[in-house]
Amino acid sequence: MCNHNARSERHDPSISPKGTVIVRAGTDIVQGRISNLSRAAVSMHTRITAPERLLDSAVDIDLRFDGRGSSWFRLQGHILRIGASSITLELDLVSPAFARVVDEMVTASHCHHRVMSIVLVDAMPERRSAMAEAFRAAGCAVIDVSTPLEAIVRLGESLFEPNLIAIADSLPGTISDELRRFVDAEHPRAKLVTISDATSAPVGPAHWLSTANPVNDLAARIRSVLIAHA
């Protein structure tokens, strides 16, 4: 195990990978999701407010990143801040394996943020292929799938949140609405975009991309969506 003084490592690069954190302080147990992480500290979202009496308490921390084959890391630290739905922990004792994984993730995160990542969900193969190629031509990394189940699986497998999730109108209305609610709840940092063949924006979606190309401007439409996201 390695000792890390977080106060002397304030400039440690931080990342926002997907993962679960379990904090144990005596008989108190709080579970949440990673919101920000470095080798020296971790912030987590929680569904409940942790008891104020736990502030500055020494805690045992179990942390696991999402993805197949991931294992739990056992860490030690103390609670720096308690919010209504968040906890910030200073890490006092971490393993060399954990520090190495975080360093690798920092590198991966830098690459991830240099290239905009897209998840495209469309049941129409020809349109999905054309849209995926158009996004790639704009410099994006694209995961294209035909069903909501595939989208959920691929989102669960990815280490970082995608920048944009595009859901086409080829899905039945109730199914696409359910997928949007799932994305809003589980992937709030991703921008939701509706793809449609219509030439005017449908009622409801805040972000929309038309695949209709009457003046050969599909690339411009995609660029405008990406710029709006940035």
* Strand segment count: 12
- Report the portion of residues in β strands: 25-35%
Average pLDDT: 81
Name of the CATH first level of the largest domain? Alpha Beta
Largest sheet: 6 strands, antiparallel, barrel
Q: What would you give as the CATH superfamily of the largest domain?
A: Response regulator
Reported CATH architecture of the largest domain: 3-Layer(aba) Sandwich
Run of helices and strands: EEEEEEEHEHEHEHEEH
Helix content: 25-40%
Shape: elongated
Textual characterization of the structure:
- The protein has 5 helices and 12 strands.
- The chain has 230 residues and is α/β, with parallel strands linked by helices.
- It folds into 2 domains: 107 residues, Thrombin, subunit H (Beta Barrel); 115 residues, Rossmann fold (3-Layer(aba) Sandwich).
- 25% of the residues are buried.
Question: What is the strand and helix layout of this fold?
Answer:
Blueprint: E1 2-3, E2 19-25, E3 28-37, E4 41-46, E5 58-65, E6 73-82, E7 86-94, H1 96-114, E8 117-121, H2 125-137, E9 141-145, H3 148-157, E10 164-168, H4 173-186, E11 191-196, E12 208-210, H5 218-229
Parallel strand pairs: 8-9, 8-10, 10-11, 11-12
Antiparallel strand pairs: 1-7, 2-3, 2-5, 3-4, 4-7, 5-6, 6-7
